[in-house]
Amino acid sequence: MPHAKKVNAMHLQDIKKLYVETDGVGLAELVRKKEIKSSELVEAAIELIEQVDPAINSVAIKTYEFARRTAASECQGPLAGVPFLLKNVGSACEGIPLDQGMKALQGLAWSSQTEMVTRIRDAGMPILGRTNAPENGWSIGTENRLHGKTRNPFDPSRTAGGSSGGAAAAVAARLVPIAEGSDGAGSIRVPASCCGVVGLKPSRGRITYGPDIADAWFGCVYTLCNSLTVRDTAAFLDVTSGNSPGDPYTTQKPERSWLSLCTQAPKKLKIGFTRRANWGPAPDPEVLSSLDDNLRLLESLGHTLIEYDLRTDIERAWWDYNDIVSVEYSRDFKSLGSNLINRSLDDEEFCPFNRAMMHRARSLSAIEYSESISATRKAGQQFAAEIAPFDVFVSPTLTQLPRPVDYWSMEESDREAYLSRWSDAAFMFIFNISGNPAISIPGKPSKAGLPVGVQYVARHGDETTLLQLAAQVEDRHPWNAHLPAVSGLGR
Question: Which of 160, 382, 397, 443 has the smallest C-beta neighbourhood within 10 Å, fewest atoms?
Answer without folding.
Answer: 382
